[in-house]
Amino acid sequence: MPEAPQTILSPASVPDEHRKALEFIEDVTANADQVQRRVLAEILAQNAPAEYLHRHGLPSRTAPDPDAFKRLIPVVTYEDIRPDILRIAHGDISSILSGRPISEFLTRFAARSRISGTSGGERKLMPMIEDELDRRSVLYSLLMPVMSQFVPGLDEGKGMYLLFVKSEARTPGGLIARPVLTSYYKSRHFLSQPFDPYNVLTSPNEAILCLDSYQSMYAQLLCGLIHRAEVVRVGAVFASGFIRAIRFLEKYWTRLCRDIRSGELDAEITDRAVREAVVRVLRPDPELARLIEAEFGRGSLQGIIPRLWPNTKYVDVIVTGAMAQYIPTLDFYSGGLPLTCTMYGSSECYFGLNLNPMCKPSEVSYTFIPTFAYFEFLPIHCSGNGRTEFDHRELVDLVDVKLGQEYELVVTTYAGK
């Protein structure tokens, strides 16, 4: 369930470059009801031409009334709108779900839903519009202003984040279909962002964008080792991905040491852009190679992260939900460094961030940022036989959720889903 806004430090006590971000968080969470009403009005005005709204009785000539929207538009699952999504995927450019042109699809494999019962293995297509990335990028811009309140000196070093893209496809109608993070890493918001001392990464963009997972991982870890003294935080999106990187390092550390010692990149890295990016920072460093060899020569990998990156202050990975199973392994590798979960999002929508990112993984909660979408909550009830039951007439707004009640999240987005 959503967390009530938490108290954050006064903007006067933080660097100037973070003041506006913290003021924004304070403003939109303190005025969540007003912001949510505005967001819903904007969504309905933008999507007034959408066939889907007219199909359910909303007028087509004026911006739909929010009260009429709540009364007439049903709560639906992906399966309910799948025929409309397939029309778009096959090239129908009319305003079906959105008043704006669909720019691409975000893909995901469905987990089982308590509402729909949909099981995993089905690839879902989430419609996106061009300006949705502008909106989602706001969440990324809030992460370091919050984190820097708890961890000093993050602007004095680099982050070793292991980031990867996946393959993309095209629908029969010609729209790109790709995972949400691939869409972001290939966007101007990631590739052309202005310099920010709080967001300097050791991984070159060329390595992040390389589709060959071996070459991408090898290059990113090599660059992370080259910049080891400057690394102040490490991470990946999911805990499982970061553990995979450590095991890759365990398997290939001798090759990496050879490259560092000689200043020559392994011949198996054949991607031209990746080679050129890595060669720009790779220099012969026999002392660093000896240090890495000595650490792996000790046998145990316990605490290997601070042993290789001694200035690391925390490990930034998602360790909630299904990722919680990896916490003991991460604790072993990290030597007890804090495990931080900073944000909450999905292919469908981005939701919010953790305003107490240094808390224990078991205590993680997220504060919804009410500008991202219109959020409603469906109370979950358990019947006498243990079955989960929903009553769509019980939908409540973001500001009306009750502490201790479990909810299914219902979102209405600017993209028309």
TrEMBL record:
Q: Domain named GH3 middle: which ranges?
A: 366-416
Q: Name the InterPro entries for this protein.
A: GH3, GH3_M
One protein family per Pfam: GH3
Q: Which domain of life is it from?
A: Eukaryota
Gene Ontology molecular function: any one: acid-amino acid ligase activity
Transferase as a keyword of this entry, yes or no, is: no
- Swiss-Prot/TrEMBL keywords: Ligase
Its protein name is GH3 middle domain-containing protein
**Species this protein is from:** Musa balbisiana (Banana)
**What PANTHER family does the annotation carry?**
GH3 DOMAIN-CONTAINING PROTEIN
The UniProt entry's GO CC annotations, sorted and at most eight, read:
cytoplasm
Q: What family is reported?
A: Belongs to the IAA-amido conjugating enzyme family.
